[in-house]
């Protein structure tokens, strides 16, 4: 190593003085030592951009002498050719712009610590670094070198011309280089930021008197534009837990924007943490065994989101040997492409695979000694598992294979093939508290609804029954809607989830929620479809054995069909043998019948609404396709002389009136009418 230059000697002297002046603060010394061990060895050149953010959050920001030493060190670093030194960080991930007196000791400290814990290199601005009317070079470099900025607007933010100078620079950086801006609004309304009203109004009256008009206009333009961006509102008296909730959302978005997390989870990961904890416990990644774990449940439950969150949490433990294969079922006709993608992800180079069998052999050959993390998302056929993860002996010690699927049967089949246990995790729907929070984030961009919308929000959340996809879709549908529009949407939603299948639909709900649930239905065979529709229309709340007696008479082989429906999470049977299903599934089944019948009750295969049954009977029309009809408390209809004329003609031709009447008397005692 050559002799130090005069600049380096001066910096070392300042650093030595700095350390002498803070040595009485044990915590400061320990923390400083942990972050900058090299200082204590030989005091090499250390750029203060790496030091100052930590200092102003954790120590001695009120000590004038320390501030003086920091400024001296900063000036030296700005003036010398040290800027090209390899010790200098090339850039920051995040620049935090805030009014120190308002937020330093609470929200900003929490945010900085959370960003650091997530591996995000954040720069914390501080007014103590300012001198004169211009941004000092180190702050300018920090803003321009950051990939994104987080302005934290607070009540007295606009009092600080330094905050405004920085914000103007941040906005220019956004315009020139596309820097991402994620604003936070603490005890201020975004409209006050945009229009310099409220607590910002008095500050700008003072600035107009003291500052150049061009500069003030530049600040106002920046406030107007940044105030229009979507951000996170927070009350000044928010609890630590409420602040941490917002901090967590900001960190998640920062990871996504910075592409630090390999997988995009979701904007509002409400309720995900508990699932991640449960799965990490089930995965037991410290164990050297090869383990298959499956996340199994109905559509819209968030299985893929949970799998992505787990992947982001543990992928570093596999030294780059990890692969996430999304939407496996969508690529079922080209399994070779999935095999190529798997090997590409792990070995970072392409492989020539000419057939599925050769691909399976290659995967086993190349991975049987490697510790890998493999996630197979949305599997709907056991063949997909056979060719991508055919056995425990395909992978090296410590490997973890995570599968997401709606179908428990697929897992049972594969478990027999791999000669090992597949650990099953079945996530529950969200509880009311988490449901309300997730809905509120999508509808209001806040973690709870405004007081004036609380009752309406509670009603929507109750109808969603904890299904994350439904909450997300309905929340997004209601953004910027007034109360009357909310009430109209609520009426429609309540109508379509109850018996009123002809109720006007909510397009986004149909397109996203029902379309996703239909995927499982479309995979069913005819007997399973028939039984699913029967339950959706008639047998919820009835005993399964009673229904089985009817389905047996119809040659539907119900026990096999019921097992498949339960495995696909389309049907539930409780401990008392009572049939049930999620309200969204019930609506889907009834919607299928309604659409198949072209909205004409006489053309439907199943009728459950008393109003619609009576409507058909009063019009003296014949049921064209009827298979199931609910006639609870309507036994006297059998005595009507025209009763059998209402039913499909083939039934009248096949049975005598007497034999059909006798059959009805028996059937009505069990469960209505079924052909």
Task: Write up what this structure looks like.
There is one protein chain. This protein is an alpha/beta fold and 675 residues long. The chain folds into six domains: 8-88, no CATH class; 91-261, Rossmann fold; 272-425, P-loop containing nucleotide triphosphate hydrolases (Rossmann fold, 3-Layer(aba) Sandwich); 432-513; 523-596, Orthogonal Bundle (Arc Repressor Mutant, subunit A); 604-675, no CATH class. 54% of the residues lie in helices and 9% in strands. Helix 17 links the parallel strand 9 and strand 10 (400-405). The chain is flat. The termini are far apart. Residues 21-63, 76-90, 128-132 and 648-675 have low confidence and may be disordered.
Summarize the entry for a quick read.
The chain has 675 residues and is of the alpha/beta class.
State the CATH superfamily name of the largest domain. Answer: Toll/interleukin-1 receptor homology (TIR) domain
The assigned CATH architecture of the largest domain is: 3-Layer(aba) Sandwich
CATH topology of the largest domain: Rossmann fold
Low-confidence stretches: 21-63, 76-90, 128-132, 648-675
Q: How helical, in percent, are the residues?
A: 40-55%
Helix tally?
Answer: 30
Terminal Cα span: 93 Å
Instruction: Specify the structural class.
Output: alpha/beta
Determine and state the CATH class of the largest domain.
Alpha Beta
Principal-axis shape equals flat
- Mean pLDDT figure: 77
């Amino acid at each position: 190593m050559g002799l130090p230059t005069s600049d380096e000697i001066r910096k070392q002297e300042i650093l030595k003085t700095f350390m002498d002046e803070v040595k009485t603060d044990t915590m400061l010394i320990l923390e400083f030592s942990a972050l900058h061990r090299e200082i204590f060895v030989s005091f090499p050149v250390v750029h203060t951009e790496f030091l100052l953010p930590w200092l102003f959050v954790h120590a001695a920001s009120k000590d004038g002498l320390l501030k003086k030493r920091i400024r001296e060190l900063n000036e030296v670093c700005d003036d010398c050719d040290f800027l090209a030194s390899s010790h200098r960080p090339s850039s920051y991930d995040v620049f935090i712009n805030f009014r120190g007196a308002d937020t330093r000791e609470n929200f900003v400290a929490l945010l900085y610590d959370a960003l650091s814990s997530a591996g995000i290199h954040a720069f914390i601005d501080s007014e103590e670094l300012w001198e004169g009317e211009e941004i000092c070079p180190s702050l300018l470099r920090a803003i321009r070198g950051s990939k994104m900025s987080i302005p934290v607007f607070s009540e007295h933010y606009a009092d600080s011309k330094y905050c405004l100078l920085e914000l103007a620079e941040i906005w220019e950086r956004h315009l020139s280089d596309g820097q991402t801006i994620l604003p936070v609004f603490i005890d201020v309304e975004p409209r006050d930021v945009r229009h310099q009203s409220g607590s910002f109004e008095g500050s700008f009256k003072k600035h107009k008197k003291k500052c150049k008009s061009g500069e003030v206009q530049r600040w106002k333009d920046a406030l107007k534009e940044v105030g229009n961006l979507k951000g996170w509102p927070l009350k000044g008296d928010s609890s630590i837990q409420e602040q941490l909730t917002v901090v967590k959302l900001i960190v998640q978005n920062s990871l996504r924007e910075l592409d630090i997390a390999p997988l995009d989870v979701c904007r509002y990961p409400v309720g995900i943490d508990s699932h991640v904890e449960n799965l990490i416990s089930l995965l037991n990644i410290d164990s050297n065994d090869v383990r298959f774990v499956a996340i199994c449940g109905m559509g819209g439950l968030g299985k893929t989101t949970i799998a992505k969150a787990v992947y982001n949490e543990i992928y570093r433990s596999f030294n780059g040997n990890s692969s996430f294969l999304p939407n496996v079922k969508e690529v079922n006709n080209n399994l070779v492409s999935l095999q190529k993608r798997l090997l590409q992800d792990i070995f970072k180079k392409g492989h020539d695979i000419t057939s599925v069998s050769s691909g399976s052999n290659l995967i086993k050959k190349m991975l049987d000694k490697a510790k890998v993390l493999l996630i197979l998302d949305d599997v709907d056929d056991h063949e997909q598992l056979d060719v991508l993860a055919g056995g425990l002996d395909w992978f090296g010690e410590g490997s973890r294979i995570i599968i997401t699927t709606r179908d428990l049967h697929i897992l049972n089949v594969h478990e027999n093939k791999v000669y090992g246990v597949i650990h099953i995790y079945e996530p529950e729907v969200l509880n009311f508290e988490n449901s309300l929070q997730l809905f509120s984030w999508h509808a209001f961009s806040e973690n709870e609804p405004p007081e004036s919308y609380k009752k309406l929000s509670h009603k929507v959340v109750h109808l969603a029954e904890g299904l994350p996809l439904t909450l997300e879709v309905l929340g997004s549908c209601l953004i910027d809607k007034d109360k009357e529009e909310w009430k109209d949407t609520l009426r429609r939603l309540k109508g379509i989830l109850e018996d009123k299948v002809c109720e006007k639909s909510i397009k986004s709900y149909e397109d996203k929620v029902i379309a996703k649930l239909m995927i499982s239905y479309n995979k069913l065979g005819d007997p399973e479809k028939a039984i699913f529709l029967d339950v959706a229309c008639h047998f919820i709340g009835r005993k399964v054995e009673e229904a089985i007696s009817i389905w047996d008479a119809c040659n539907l082989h119900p026990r096999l069909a019921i097992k498949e429906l339960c495995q696909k999470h389309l049907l539930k049977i409780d401990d008392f043998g009572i049939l049930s299903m999620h309200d969204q599934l019930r609506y889907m089944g009834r919607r299928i019948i309604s659409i198949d019948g072209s909205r004409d009750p006489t053309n439907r295969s199943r009728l459950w609404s008393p109003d619609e049954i009576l409507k058909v009977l009063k019009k003296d029309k014949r049921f064209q396709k009827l298979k199931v009809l609910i006639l609870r408390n309507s036994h006297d209809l059998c005595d009507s002389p025209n009763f059998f004329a209402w039913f499909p003609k083939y039934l009248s031709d096949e049975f005598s009136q007497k034999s059909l009447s006798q059959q009805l008397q028996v059937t009505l005692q069990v469960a209505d009418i079924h052909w």
